[in-house]
Each structure stands twice: as structure tokens, then as C-alpha cells.
Write a structure and sequence with these properties.
The chain is of the alpha+beta class. The chain is built from 3 helices and 3 strands. A hairpin with a 4-residue loop joins β2 and β3. It is globular and about 40 Å long.
Length: 66
């Protein structure tokens, strides 16, 4: 039986920066401005973002550029 790798749905802010090809600071700014929702996980409240939210942001940005 062949296994298919599953891409993670969530990542930390640094992973989001790599995903978008930008800096971590840019991701922090997008979170702080409310353009990207952030999810807090665990007792320490580690911040995570959904990669699908980043995809949605790109679609909106492309639509606004047109």
C-alpha cells in the first residue's frame, strides 16, 4: 500500500514566512494587523497559522492588484 505524504495544515510564524517567501517580521505584521488569523495552541499559547489562510491572503492581494 502506497503512502502519500500529508502536508501540515498549520505552521508556526517562521514556517509561514518560508511558505510565502518573506520574512518572519512580515508575518508578524500581517497577524498584528488582523490580515492573517492566528491560533494559539497549548498551555504556552504558541502561535500557529493555517497555510490555507496564507493562500487566501494571496488570492485577495491578487484580486486587489487587478
Amino acid at each position: 500500500m502506497a503512502r502519500h505524504p500529508v502536508e501540515p495544515a498549520f505552521g508556526d510564524l517562521s514556517a509561514g514566512a518560508v511558505y510565502l517567501g518573506t520574512s518572519r517580521r512580515t508575518i508578524v505584521r500581517l497577524v498584528e494587523s488582523g490580515r492573517i488569523p492566528v491560533y494559539r495552541l497549548g498551555p504556552r499559547g504558541n502561535r500557529r497559522i493555517k497555510f490555507s489562510d496564507l493562500d487566501d491572503l494571496l488570492v485577495v492581494e491578487e484580486a486587489n492588484a487587478s
